């Protein structure tokens, strides 16, 4: 009898559960009634979502009973949401055209999701469409074409990035919120970025230490990767240019009801080139085999698994492998340079009654630098691999975001970080590490029907070496019609790099001079006060943004010449320098961005950046800064029968780059790119492309070793092919 009652109860529960499910089925179209492919469709505050197929159709199955906000978004269209509380089999959702990127979602400015035009903290966004339109194979060239605020000082080791005047030592570069750690001569290795699967790039300018901690004195660049929702999505992107510049990328995504897998691989390689077959050595010109752009290859592999355990809980596990080698000529160099990296991340999020989101992320990054000898050079033999440096970074971040009614969204979190350096050739006992423990809080306050917003926040941190720090921020935005007005203050903080504290380094210049750079354990942390105001006007076809800022930096770390070489080093080095804190640096700037759509597929983007800097120790400008930078981006899109063609023309004008001696030249680079997407046939699409880089053949062909303005070899023709299959 008991068994029968138990069986009846179980069957009743199963029946009730089965009937307590809803289904949402429909189609997404544009104003002309044409289906929109790959539109995102999801239920807000849940893990339930999908994308539309080639006919614009979508279906959400097995939805628990309740009231939901069904949201739909797609690139080039205004987003829309619909309230649903029962099954719908014939939903019809029409999205209005929005050729500008005002409705893109951004997360970097506040750590929470906001529409770009509603974000209380100003953030620049580079969309997937813009990245595809310019069709470059590298992160550096893409950013130079699309934003004047970012600049890159080229050298043979890697590009030296600057954001509004501060170098990449003060800029955090992240992929999906995970910081890239490890550097090459002070430069983050940007070849670790796979350009083939980027959804958008968000750029937060100015001090952001209250939300992101140390290193964020200059800003944050967050690269968001694409995550297709199709059951199966396979893509291949191939690009070949002169000088053996070859890029091949593969992406494979598989999604089931509760399990997702994303695999990506990218190979980059080049034969390298010379700009001038001579160099200055001891004040005279001599022939050389040295190249400012060495032959190289790099591989980056990423694997990510996601598990949707329920509508409220999801988990992920991902890993990355990276390998790059610079190949140099044994006639002038004794060894090649090799860089390897692996990283592992895991975490999850939990949605609490549609009101709060709790995130836990744990991450580890290991970056190694080695030398591989290509000829005998005492005490090393040809083919011998010699360890140079290992850098590790550990990060555990627990964050909660709570919506307290319509007026407040509160974020609370705690973060543990550990930096590790092993450099047996430079550090007496081989390694050093230091930890930082932080607590941070933020409140997004919305008043006057969300027309007025305030974002106060702070971070309290304890650094193992430099003890306690407090970094506050306050941002405000007032919206009036089609206008937004923003103002912000934020404090920045950066603990000295372990290399600067403990690692001595030798350097041999192209002229043969030998320099020793001494560490300094008495360095103080760097700090800043950042002030900015922003005014923005937008409508459906025009956006204009003007921003001005002041960044007061104290204790900036730089290398200074010793007045006299210590007796024990006399005769061993031509110059001895030491890391020291500067008294004060002030950077003032203005950024202007204009984007417009004229109809008939024609759009235009203009950008301008002005930077004025002063080092109060010397009275001079900061090195490697260009006062004036401008970009232009003209794009035309046209559908011809079964072909969707796109033609893009972009250019960058940049004034001289200041150095104590031998200033960098002005930059004048123009490019044209085209791509032609064929109609999707049963889930398969082809997209051939071709273009010309540096149309007017601008080359900085001064002798090797100068401060080059650009490493472009001149006019370069490229061809590309993108293949995608989805089901």
| Overall number of strands | 47
CATH superfamily caption of the largest domain: TonB-dependent receptor, beta-barrel domain
- Structural class given helices, strands, pairing? mainly beta
Number of helices: 5
How would you briefly describe this protein structure?
The chain has about 725 residues and is mostly beta strands.
Top keywords for this entry?
single chain; 727 residues; mainly beta; Immunoglobulin-like; Maltoporin, Chain A; five-stranded mixed sheet; 47 strands; 6% helix; globular
Mind explaining what this structure looks like?
The chain has a 22-stranded antiparallel beta barrel. It has a 5-stranded mixed beta sheet with strand order 10-18-19-14-15. Strands 3-2-5-6 form a 4-stranded antiparallel beta sheet, with no helix packed on it. The two termini are 50 Å apart. The protein is globular and about 85 Å long. It contains 5 helices and 47 strands. By secondary structure, it is mainly β. A hairpin with a 2-residue loop joins strand 33 (467-480) and strand 34 (483-494). The protein has 2 domains: 2-94, Sandwich (Immunoglobulin-like), CATH 2.60.40; 105-726, Maltoporin, Chain A (Beta Barrel).
Give the helices and strands, then pairings.
Layout (H helix, E strand, L loop, with lengths): L1 H18 L1 E9 L10 E4 L5 E3 L5 E8 L3 E6 L6 E5 L3 E7 L10 E2 L7 E2 L8 E4 H7 L4 H8 L3 E4 L6 E4 L2 E2 L3 E5 L2 E2 L3 E2 L2 E2 L9 E8 L3 H4 L6 E7 L6 E10 L3 E11 L3 E12 L7 E4 L2 E4 L7 E14 L4 E15 L7 E18 L3 E18 L11 E20 L3 E15 L8 E17 L4 E12 L3 E14 L2 E12 L3 H5 L2 E4 L5 E5 L7 E13 L3 E13 L2 E5 L13 E7 L2 E16 L2 E14 L12 E13 L2 E12 L12 E12 L5 E10 L22 E11 L1
Parallel strand pairs: 1-7, 14-19, 36-40
Antiparallel strand pairs: 1-4, 2-3, 2-5, 5-6, 8-9, 10-18, 11-12, 12-13, 14-15, 16-17, 18-19, 20-21, 20-47, 21-22, 22-25, 23-24, 25-26, 26-27, 27-28, 28-29, 29-30, 30-31, 31-32, 32-33, 33-34, 34-37, 35-36, 37-38, 38-41, 39-40, 41-42, 42-43, 43-44, 44-45, 45-46, 46-47
């Amino acid at each position: 009898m008991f068994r029968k009652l138990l069986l009846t109860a179980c069957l009743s529960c199963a029946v009730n559960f089965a009937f307590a499910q809803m289904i949402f089925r429909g189609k997404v179209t544009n104003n002309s009634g044409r289906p929109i492919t790959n539109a995102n469709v999801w239920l807000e505050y849940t893990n339930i979502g999908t994308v539309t197929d080639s006919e614009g159709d979508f279906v959400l199955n097995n939805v628990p009973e309740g009231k939901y906000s069904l949201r739909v978004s797609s690139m080039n269209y205004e987003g829309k949401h619909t309230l649903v509380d029962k099954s719908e089999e014939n939903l019809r959702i029409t999205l209005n055209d929005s050729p500008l990127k005002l409705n893109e979602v951004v997360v970097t400015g506040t750590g929470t999701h906001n529409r770009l035009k509603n974000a209380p903290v100003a953030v620049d966004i580079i969309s997937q469409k813009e990245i595809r339109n310019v069709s470059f194979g590298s992160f550096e060239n893409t950013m130079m074409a699309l934003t004047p605020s970012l600049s890159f000082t080229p050298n043979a080791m890697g590009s030296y990035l600057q954001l509004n005047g501060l170098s990449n030592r003060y800029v955090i570069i992240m992929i999906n919120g995970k910081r890239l750690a490890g550097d090459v001569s002070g430069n983050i290795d940007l070849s670790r970025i796979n350009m083939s699967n980027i959804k958008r790039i968000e750029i937060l300018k100015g001090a952001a230490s209250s939300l992101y901690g140390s290193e964020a004195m200059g800003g944050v660049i967050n690269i968001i990767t694409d995550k297709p929702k199709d059951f199966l999505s396979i893509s291949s992107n191939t690009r070949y240019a002169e000088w053996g510049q070859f890029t091949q990328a593969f992406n494979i995504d598989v999604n089931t009801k509760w399990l997702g897998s994303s695999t990506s691989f990218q190979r980059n390689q080049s034969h390298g080139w010379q700009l001038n077959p001579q160099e200055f050595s001891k004040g005279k010109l001599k022939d050389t085999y040295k190249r400012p752009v060495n032959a190289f290859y790099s591989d980056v592999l990423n694997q990510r698994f996601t598990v949707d355990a329920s509508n409220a809980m999801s988990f992920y596990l991902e890993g990355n492998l990276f390998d790059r080698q610079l190949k140099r000529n044994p006639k002038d160099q004794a060894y090649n340079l090799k860089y390897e990296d692996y990283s592992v991340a895991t975490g999850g999020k939990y949605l609490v009654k549609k009101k709060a989101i709790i995130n836990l992320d744990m991450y580890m990054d290991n970056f190694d630098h080695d030398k591989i000898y290509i000829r005998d050079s005492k005490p090393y033999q040809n083919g011998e691999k010699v360890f140079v440096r290992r850098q590790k970074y550990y990060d555990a971040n627990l964050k909660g975001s709570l919506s307290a009614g319509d007026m407040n969204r509160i974020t609370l979190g705690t973060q543990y970080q550990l930096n590790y350096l092993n450099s047996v050739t430079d550090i007496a006992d081989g390694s050093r590490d230091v930890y930082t423990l932080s607590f941070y809080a933020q409140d997004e306050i919305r008043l006057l029907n969300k027309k007025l917003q305030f974002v106060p926040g702070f971070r309290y941190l304890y650094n193992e070496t430099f003890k306690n720090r407090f970094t506050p921020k306050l941002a405000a935005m007032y919206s009036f019609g089609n206008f937004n007005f923003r103002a912000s203050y934020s404090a920045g903080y950066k603990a000295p790099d372990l290399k600067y504290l403990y690692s001595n380094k030798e350097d041999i210049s192209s002229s043969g001079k030998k320099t020793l750079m001494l560490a300094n354990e008495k360095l103080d942390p760097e700090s800043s006060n950042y002030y900015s105001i922003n005014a923005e006007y937008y409508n459906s076809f025009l956006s204009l943004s003007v921003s001005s800022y002041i960044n007061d930096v104290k204790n900036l770390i730089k290398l200074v010449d010793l007045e006299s070489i210590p007796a024990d080093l006399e005769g061993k080095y031509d110059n001895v320098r030491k890391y020291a804190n500067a008294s004060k640096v002030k950077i003032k700037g203005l950024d202007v961005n204009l984007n417009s759509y004229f109809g008939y597929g024609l759009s235009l983007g203009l950008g301008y950046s002005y930077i004025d800097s002063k080092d109060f120790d010397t009275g001079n400008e900061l090195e490697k800064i260009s006062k004036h930078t401008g970009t232009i981006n003209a794009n035309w899109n046209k559908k011809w029968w079964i072909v969707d063609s796109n033609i893009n023309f972009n250019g960058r004008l940049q004034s001289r780059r200041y150095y104590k001696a031998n200033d960098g030249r002005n930059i004048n680079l123009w490019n044209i790119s085209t791509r032609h997407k064929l109609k999707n046939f049963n889930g398969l699409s082809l997209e051939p492309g071709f273009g010309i880089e540096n149309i007017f053949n601008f080359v900085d062909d001064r002798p090797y070793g100068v401060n080059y303005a650009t490493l472009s070899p001149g006019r370069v023709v490229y061809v590309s092919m993108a293949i995608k299959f989805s089901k």
